[in-house]
Amino acid sequence: MESRAPTTASRRSSGTWWGETTDLSGAVRKGWVVTLLTIRYLTSTRRGIVTLALSWIPLLLTGALAIARVPSFDILLFQQLMVPLFLEIVLVFVTLVSAMALIREEIDDNTLPFLLTRPVSKPAVAVSKFTGYLAAGLAFLLPPVLVSYVVTEAYAGTGLGMDADVLGAFLAATALGVLAYGALFYFLSVAFRKPLMVGLLIGFLWESVAGFLPGSVPMLSLMFYLKSVLKGLVSVGPLSGFNSENVSAQAAATVLLVFSIVLLIAAAALFQRMEFRQKA
């Protein structure tokens, strides 16, 4: 049986957004406790450990290429591997598993009602848990990008700053992906009783297929904007021919940020209306 770290959430909370907490510093302290518990929950369970291991797949691949002394292994091959492997598979999978564990799994495990008996309102709990997810998600996914880049540059014999634009672009795209996909999957976990199938269909079917559809349909996928960020920040790479519909990196980042904020607000509003009863 999977080991569980302490988790956070009750009796019905008050109808105000910040519940019984009127002091801002007190609300921040209570929210910070929820955030820390969420980070611990996402990083100390077996699922978290497996997710962490999967996030390092790019390093395993780049390390294998370096050990095998593949002549074509350089920063261009690094980009060609990172887009389909890391952004389209690893990032989507890690964010799906992590974000969907925040609410729905705690409901199923009957740990959420306990947290909600505390003097912290439901929306505050929702935002604090998402903050904890962001911290854990970035800790999972940013280091593999950085270390894989270092391995690539070391093998190529170039300075670490030679392709700093590539590193910066992938770090930015990864951070935005953690935020946007996390907000999407978090919202689904609140909106649907069985969100996993919906998340899989969107994350791995729609996001993969949308890019091949005609017209402006690709703009309805998050991956389109992540690739637009990469294209706008990297001068030479495999996405140079990507049709970004003249969407700049700044515009794409703005879309992802606005999308994430809207979905987080919607998730918190839905969570506010949910009723929880402690199971016997």
What's this model, at a glance?
With 280 residues, the protein is mainly alpha-helical.
Description:
- There is one protein chain.
- With 280 residues, the protein is mostly helical.
- The protein has one domain.
- It has 11 helices and no strands.
- The chain has helices at 24-44, 46-55, 57-67, 75-100, 104-108, 112-115, 122-156, 164-191, 195-209, 222-233, 249-273.
- Helix 4 packs antiparallel against helix 7 (122-156), helix 8 packs antiparallel against helix 9 (195-209) and helix 8 (164-191) runs parallel beside helix 11.
- The two termini are 20 Å apart.
- Mean pLDDT is 85; it is low at 8-22.
Provide keyphrases for this structure.
mainly alpha
Query: What's the β-strand tally?
Result: 0
Biggest sheet layout = none
Quickly count the domains: 1
Structural Rg: 20 Å
Helix content: 55-70%
Any low-confidence stretches, pLDDT <50, length ≥5?
Answer: 8-22
Q: Helix and strand succession? A: HHHHHHHHHHH
**Approximately how much beta-strand content do the residues carry?**
under 5%
Averaged pLDDT: 85
C-alpha end-to-end distance: 20 Å
Number of helices: 11
Give the overall shape, derived from the CA principal axes: globular
Structural class: mainly alpha
List the helices and strands and how they pair.
Blueprint: H1 24-44, H2 46-55, H3 57-67, H4 75-100, H5 104-108, H6 112-115, H7 122-156, H8 164-191, H9 195-209, H10 222-233, H11 249-273
